[in-house]
């Protein structure tokens, strides 16, 4: 019963098979290989955007921070939700890659960034140039750190507010496939058609071993990116490692099948949990993450029975949430590898 | 009637005279001159700390950020009040100088950083290494951005909390002389005896043209500082410019006389303003800055009569402050150059 | 007949098999997995150094530059041979990772860095502090960019000169296994026993898909490395990808078997080529790289027959080498995947 | 008899007087003051370029490195002469300000950078993108580190070569006034009309206490400069300090009178020295610096009599220069403050 994280499994069977097949023979290095070239074309097709610029790297932090370094000047700020992965879990990589731009975190009280919050922040920026740092980009996470998915409408509103003030819009899509699977919106609708300038699309959490994409819908922002990737050590010599994973991941809708399964396992958990006394599902579950209040004795019992899930930080709760001493705030994550029987066993133990 | 800022005057008469005298003759460059050497000794005497390491630079941003770069690793955070000058008014210099350390701002709701706020923040840092940025330093401003002065007791408490968690304590002393003049505490009591590791002492706002000091009470932190200063372009070739100002500024208590005057002018304003209807002095006035709510018609009238002071940012008000539509939030600053007649004229116009 | 580069093959059969096996099941992320833990232990055993600190990353540029960033201050220089990979082929990654340290390239005229050259450079550094950049580290490549291997004696001499002046010694071991296979010196003899402080050991060119190690023999230098790796985006979430490769690569001397084969193929080429008229083997062939002058018509003929190898930069020739207009300078590289029949076919075509 | 450096005097009488006058009264801070505004206009007039963008800072390292950071990307290189001040005497400031661009030094053997050397370097750059750093700017010093002045013709040729390959041309004009005084070329002819994109014009060595200018003839390069200056701590609060110096320095040709005097004193030294046995003037003396071989006994005698000048680094000699054991290589510098009697006394002692 593993609900610890979606980066604790290996690759999906299909992705692994692709890696095995790609292992044969000689091919050009540094991303000039045939797999990488094909993978770029697949991305362009799936996003219905023949001109988007696509780059592969091996880690999500690299993808996010390389993207951001292409979007802001070092004297600008990057606005994001207070629980954003770039703010909480990537050390000071955003500052390092951008040459010292600043993260400004918004909206501690809610699980998602709202147009109202953004608008209110931007409106009260009476900038005293060059003393005050200047907003340069907005970054949102899809699906986000509270397990929620922004609707196309919400993204559009945020994009319009951002663009009106000259900010670029970055989307951290570490769980983008879960968001697409959840809403049914097309990849294009959820990104560039809604105003996203750069998407970091993560495959590692959903079926790959290590494969992340930086997709520039605004090609001008991609200028110099090949140098950025190289000088940060993120251009792998054997590009087939990334290209083969990505190609297989997208082929025949594999990525969405994996994501759909993960989401369904999460919903099955929700259904099982929501009827139980003493369990509070803190945030709406839109994708493959659940944030719960569980009775502490239940937590200990479940863990003693082999269930894996993690305590979560109280400071990420809604601002007005009253924590009971008897309860523990926990996060559960499902993945493509989660089985129905794991879910059912968990629920039955909890009953 | 100039109450715009304390950096809008030239040097005091004595400091200017020192510059004129120091202009003669040949002397070693790059801070090896006799004036700089003497100035270092004066600092050591005044702070009763014969081993402190002292460096001169020409700007407050340089002093603060060079100091911080000596105190934190690039993967650490610098905690400060939300209105701190380093957070609001130094662009992204802290990130640039430190190689990408992060500022974390605390306590929007109050005009000063309290031990409670700091303690509460530090306690809830359940660090997931190496993902989360790690607190590395605390920075406080003395006198601070709300015109308030931390007592020796408060500094001691903050220092103890900081040191207990391995943080270094930085003091931005752009208006340190005003704080010393206000409290009567000795420079040593207000700094290293209370736990301050590095003080940035500003003379530019209080009688000099451009002279700021970085004073390391913890000499180990000063290792490499001469390289830091050089490679950031802050080692001036004609060091006498800085050394002569500093020497004259400290001589015969000149610095405190200037600061005392500025503070007295501020208190004279407070006395005159506090009896007037419709005027609200928002924060206690401990030094040479006043933050006021003035009726808008009065503001316009005063400005039409030649009074200079600036509208201030509402977001720096106490969290629960209710702003009246009829009023304007303003800042007034006095300096060594403020005259009693300017103050009296201002008050009489406001009556 | 592929002699283009040793990064144009996939993984060896054994390494691929290990990846397949490691794909199963749940394991901790971010390098806490069992494969990574075992791989660290194998490194310690092979290097006979139970306390060395070992970190895995996916690219050689990342390994080298992360290592260097742990070894020098930003105001120091890194000395290296003019043809060093860090100077020629890693963009400005050394500057980026180190926060702006400077590369100083030595000895254009020879294929290897000599103690005489180093000594002469260090002796004439009359440092005017803090104006001049200060030597902080020496970096050598083993096997180096001219296909040569430093003897243990040479390394020891360079290390002694470096250490005597306070420099740390870095070894870029992208082809370290070829060097070990070539000399028969033990890994320990060739590194820490000779004075190497930090080794970057590359497995990607010799049987892995993407696996590089940073090995600190001086543990003090490793302080903070986990933060450095994270904030540069080089901590992979699914650490098994790296750990499994490394473990299998070292197991049962697999790494040396692969390297030995590559070296033997290079020697077979040398033997075949050295008896041919009009062919000049420019540098001694110690490992798996050959640098040759070939008649231009032969070059064209070989390439038309499917032989792959690259023109090489004339500026890397010995200083006094006279290039004939009829000849082309080329590089040939053998790898674990090079077959004897490829070599023999190449030689017979050239006859 | 001071010939140590041109940064060991104070300000000229006129510049000091201007500082005294500018000390009175209230004025806007951060460069918005009237003196700074006027100084910008004077620069535009003197350079016959009404649109050039002009910024003031207090140190030459800051001027040079801020300028360069506006001219190159962090993955580019800056080409310069091996003895360039930016390469020898500014620590690793170029790397720091540019975010890690690389200095590439050319032409060790000669006292000036020639079009042939530049052309030869640029021609052999067979760039393997993105692996190799890419030339982004050329920096020349006028007058240069060997005391020589580039002719307008030479600058034009270097500019054309640079621009043809997409490089920007930077001029380090720490002794620009000496060069103008020496050649009689107008400031415009020697800079933008010859192809210089950005000039760093130093006044500190020639009559000011601390005043350096960054002058963008290509205004597009100045975009964001105000942020760069602020976040590096180089925006002084009391801008009058810089503005007043610059204004007075340029007024009535004062800057050229000072430079002309310094140059004349250097020529007087040359005339006196050139007739003496055992003295070799190594480089042509075009401005205010002399590089000499003096008999060692003469050196000791002169210094014992109070003459100040410095031993110089043998590695900066012409490549084929044979140093006699009996002689010492020294540098002598004249300045606006050098007197005829100092020169004559020096010569007579040497006879």
What's the short version?
Chain A has helices at 13-22, 34-46, 60-69, 85-88, 93-98, 115-123, 152-164, 176-183, 187-190, 225-231, 240-250, 254-274, 296-304, 340-350; strands spanning 53-57, 76-81, 102-106, 134-141, 168-173, 198-202, 212-216, 280-281, 289-295, 310-311, 327-333. Chain A is α/β, with parallel strands linked by helices and 351 residues long. Chain A has a 7-stranded mixed beta sheet, sandwiched between helices. Chain A has a 4-stranded antiparallel beta sheet with strand order 8-9-11-10.
Explain what you see.
By secondary structure, the first copy, chain A, is α/β, with parallel strands linked by helices. The first copy, chain A, has 2 domains: 11-253, 3-Layer(aba) Sandwich (Aspartate Aminotransferase, domain 2), CATH 3.40.640; 255-350, Aspartate Aminotransferase, domain 1 (Alpha-Beta Complex). Chain A has helices at residues 13-22, 34-46, 60-69, 85-88, 93-98, 115-123, 152-164, 176-183, 187-190, 225-231, 240-250, 254-274, 296-304, 340-350, and strands at 53-57, 76-81, 102-106, 134-141, 168-173, 198-202, 212-216, 280-281, 289-295, 310-311, 327-333. In chain A, the strands form 2 sheets. The first copy, chain A, has a 7-stranded mixed sheet, sandwiched between helices. The longest helix of chain A is centred in the C-terminal third of the chain and has 21 residues, at 254-274. The radius of gyration of chain A is 20 Å and the shape is globular. In chain A, 61% of the residues are buried. The model of chain A has no long low-confidence stretch (mean pLDDT 96). At the A-C interface, helix 1, helix 3, helix 5 and helix 10 of A face helix 1, helix 3, helix 5 and helix 10 of C.
């Amino acid at each position: 019963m593993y609900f610890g994280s979606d980066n604790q499994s290996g690759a999906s069977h299909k992705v692994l098979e692709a890696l095995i097949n790609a292992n044969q023979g000689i091919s050009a290095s540094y991303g000039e290989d045939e797999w990488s070239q094909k993978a770029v074309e697949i991305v362009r097709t799936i996003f219905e955007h023949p001109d988007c610029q696509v780059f592969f790297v091996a880690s999500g932090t690299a993808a996010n921070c390389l993207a951001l370094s292409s979007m802001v000047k070092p004297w600008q700020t990057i606005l994001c939700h207070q629980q954003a992965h770039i703010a909480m879990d990537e050390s000071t990589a955003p500052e390092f890659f951008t040459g010292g731009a600043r993260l400004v975190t918004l909206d501690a009280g809610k699980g998602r960034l709202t147009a109202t919050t953004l608008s209110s922040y931007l409106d009260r920026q009476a900038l005293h140039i060059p003393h005050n740092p200047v907003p340069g980009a907005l970054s949102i996470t899809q699906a986000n750190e509270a397990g929620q998915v922004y609707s196309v409408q919400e993204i559009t509103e945020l994009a319009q507010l951002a663009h009106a003030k000259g900010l670029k819009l970055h989307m951290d899509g570490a769980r983008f496939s879960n968001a697409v699977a959840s809403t049914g919106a097309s990849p294009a609708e959820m990104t560039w058609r809604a105003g996203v300038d750069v998407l970091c699309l993560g495959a590692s959490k959903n079926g790959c071993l290590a494969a992340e994409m930086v997709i520039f819908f605004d090609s001008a922002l991609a200028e110099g990116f090949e140098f950025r990737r190289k000088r940060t050590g993120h251009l792998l010599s054997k590009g087939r490692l990334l290209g083969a994973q990505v190609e297989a991941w997208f082929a025949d809708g594999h990525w969405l099948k994996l994501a759909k399964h993960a989401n369904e396992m999460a919903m099955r958990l929700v259904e099982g949990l929501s009827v139980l006394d003493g369990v509070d599902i803190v945030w709406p579950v839109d994708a493959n993450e659940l944030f719960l209040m569980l009775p502490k004795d239940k937590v200990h019992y479940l863990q003693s029975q082999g269930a894996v899930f993690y305590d979560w930080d109280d400071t990420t709760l809604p601002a007005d949430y009253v924590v009971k001493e008897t309860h523990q705030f926990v996060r559960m994550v499902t993945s493509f590898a989660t089985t129905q029987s794991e879910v059912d066993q968990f629920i039955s133990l909890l009953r």
